[in-house]
Amino acid sequence: MSHGFDAATAIPDAKGAEEPRLPGLLGLFDRTLRGINRVILGLGGLCLVGACLVLSHSVVVRYLLKEPTDWQDEMAVFLIVGATFFSAAGVQAKRGHVAIEALTGLLPPAVNRVRLLFVDVVSLAFCAFFAWKSWTLDHEAWVDGQTSQSTWGPPLWIPYTLMAAGMSLLCLQFVLQIAEALLYGPRAAGWAKPKIGIGADVNRDMHGAPGVTPQGPDPIGRTVDARVKR
Length: 230
Known about the structure:
Blueprint: H1 7-10, H2 24-64, H3 72-86, H4 88-93, H5 109-144, H6 157-184, H7 198-207
């Protein structure tokens, strides 16, 4: 199992201006999505901090001041839903979602290339269905004026919109990566830096010894060895 995204890899490799890695319209699409994802990841962090503050306020008011609460729980849920769904595309851009790699080392590179593309296509199909269903529920909630059953009663189109927009953005990210893989190869689609998880990056970041950090097999043809040079 691989956890590809963590705090160490979230830091850009270089602070200088990035050169466009893809030409033409696809390169413009890529740079636009990267800019949007960068902003959304920052806002997602603020939403999580906001949810923590709201829940902390709820605990203080409910258990220390002995006053009833009605809006805090749902507000925290809305903030977490927004952070989760909107940041999904940014995490996918870094290939950071959890992936099971049981077959990676058993299959030849050519088969792995097909497998990785097939996984992206299936993931796109699922996310497209999820987005379509979310937009359908969002429309129904807007037209019917649906609200939650709590005493606060916020409109339900708010969480449905967050879900639908976040999944739509994730679909665009999958479309971009599939196009990159078909036109320029799998390395252009984000598979160029294989990792085995947070331990590798923490070890590299804390000890400055990438040569002794295991990185696991490269699914597209390059095996990274972790031998210590003495």
